[in-house]
Amino acid sequence: MGPDTMWQCSGRAGTSGRTAAKRSSRRAERELEADLHALTAVLADRWGDPATVELWPYLGFDDPDPESAAPEPLGFLCNVASTMRVWWLPSGGRWLALAVGQADPEFPFELLAAVGEESSLPR
Description:
Order of helices and strands: EHEHEEE
Strand content: 25-35%
Largest sheet: 5 strands, antiparallel
Mean pLDDT: 85
Helix content: 25-40%
Number of strands: 5
Strand order of the largest sheet: 1-5-4-3-2
Structural class: alpha+beta
């Protein structure tokens, strides 16, 4: 496994009708948020409270260089989630993040876990 790794767990959605689909999507998002809180509590017991990182700056809208891109897994995360909870691992050199995201309205919400190099996300 490389230094930058992603795990995904999809929420359940998918009933007939637009209203039913929205309701199901909101329910799936709530379920994943509950899972996120539970997993955050377990990791906080081990490594302390996480930092909350806003992901919009990694979209590159404020960067004058149109070719610049956020390093992975930030490049992916900033396109599917607005924030993530981050722990800088005590072993040094890496961070672990959790987020709930959705790639597009027709895709399911996902609980995401990512590990990246510390240099890609300075403290």
